[in-house]
Amino acid sequence: MSERENKRKRSWQYRKPLHPAWKVVISGLVLFHLSAVVIFPLAFASHGDSPSVRAAVGWFEPYGRVCHLNHGYAFFAPDPGPSHLVEYRLEFNDGRQPITGRFPDLEQHWPRLLYHRHFMLAEHLNADYRPPQPPPGATPEQLAMWKVERGRYEQHLRSLQRHLLEQYDADRVILKRLEHRIPYVNAFLYDGMRLDDERLFVVQSEVEVLEAEGAEK
Amino acid sequence: MNIVLRGARDWVEEGLAGWDRFWFKPALPHTLALIRILAGAMLLYTHFVWSLNLEAFLGPSSWITADVSRELHGNSIWAWTPLWHIESPAMLWTLHLTGLVVIAMFTVGLFSRVTSVLSFLLAVMYCHRLEGALFGLDQVNTMLAMYCMFGPCGAVYSVDRLIRRVRAGGPLPEPEPSVGANVAIRLIQLHMCVIYLFGGIGKIKGDTWWVGNAFWMAVGNKEYQSLDMTWLVHYPVLCSLLAHITVFWETFYCATVWPRWTRPITLAVAAAVHGGIALFLGMITFGLAMLIGNLAFVPPEMIRNLAAWLAGERGRGGEEGVDLERAPPQRARRRGAAVGVNDQ
Predict the structure, then answer these.
(1) Can you tell me the ipTM of this complex?
(2) B325–chain A Cβ distance below 8 A for any pair
(3) Which listed residue, of B21, B37, B124, B256, carries a Cα 20 to 30 Å from B208's Cα?
(4) What's this model's pTM, rounded to 2 decimal places?
(5) Rounded Cα distance, B268 and B274, in Å
(6) What angle (nearest 5°) sits at the alpha carbon of residue A25, between those of residues A67 and B255?
(7) CA dihedral in degrees (A52, A26, B136, A177; nearest 10)?
(8) Residues B241-284: pLDDT tens digits?
């Protein structure tokens, strides 16, 4: 058989079509995968309140986590909202002047993607926030959930604080969550309020202090 | 009764035939290969940027420590990543630099079959460790890396093909259409539809998208702003119109992107929306990543011909110089059979 003929036979239209059994297997895998792609944003949209979606999420949880598919895709939804930032003050027992800072910070974080990573650190901390007291009239189930979530927030917060303490070799860090609100259209148009007006930065309810281990109080 | 049964049988048969056509019709690999190059470059850039602050994000005393990262995943074993266990900076840098080399190889299409799988694993490994610093870009990065490994993403526009060409001592035949290329592109297409559908549904719940001042809320957000577009506030009719178009386009993307007539319009709006996000809202990486995902709806024949045209082979159909205008009947038939992924 000539080389030309060999090439011709290797050509795709001379190949055997995919065996039906393979088609069934691939179809099953595709359906499973697409179900996972849909179920996570559905769970996000229903806030976990739909029993059927909650049950389905349980089935797909391992696959969704392994493949990083567990997202809500709610970009700028339901409404574009205010930004959340973190402001810190580092204090030193050896007489050094305190250092204050804020993240994200355009002047410090470059390129833009690195700035956005710091922005997300602040946004995720805010998203994880749970009040220090359980919701009034909480059922035992809600109370247990609050405990877990509040514990997670505290760990998250301490992690950021410890990073700052170690980065600057500081003895104390005071950390505030800030909300940077967007001015009303009328205030912007007629009162001349700027986007970075100090009145638009609102300190969130708690101010968190962490002492470095061994630091004198 | 017979009529009802026959109707039901026809319905099932047509459905199965449609399913078969949708998933198993071989497609040329050019769209997937272009997505590999662009998505690979984006993944490479994303990981390069981690290098600028590697230990602050992945070191033992990082912003989010390994223990807290595990906690943010609810201590799920399914989010396991080796990066939870790496404490030595030397080991971390070695792994990171190796990862960058692997992603660079994937981008240029060297050992694509292996490097596409490794790139996906690397992307997921970093995402699991970096919970708390992620956003939409990472979701799109991992999605595109995942689907690239399902198809022959290095069949064209790749170092792999160049090596094969050198070994063959001359031009290679046109790359073969394959089921793998079709399945990979179909999965990207459907995933994009899901992303937009839920993005649209989410916005429908919000008042500002209905009232029309969502645009102000976006351009008036100082932290996102990269170009000052607050002058738009002087044009409330335009602002509200843009908000409404965004919601309708996003919600119905999954329907309007398939018919030939509405697809160009849908993709043009995607280019405008994501171009706007990239230029004005400070998320150039995310905007570009979404545009790369939208490329899945561009037929491979168009990309092949455009690439040939750019390479100065105007009138020639393939990278190896197949002249489509003068193709013999059999060749033309093959070309017709090499169905694009968007031939619905």
Answers:
(1) 0.91
(2) no
(3) B256
(4) 0.91
(5) 10
(6) 65
(7) 40
(8) 999 999 999 999 999 999 999 999 999 999 999 999 999 999 99
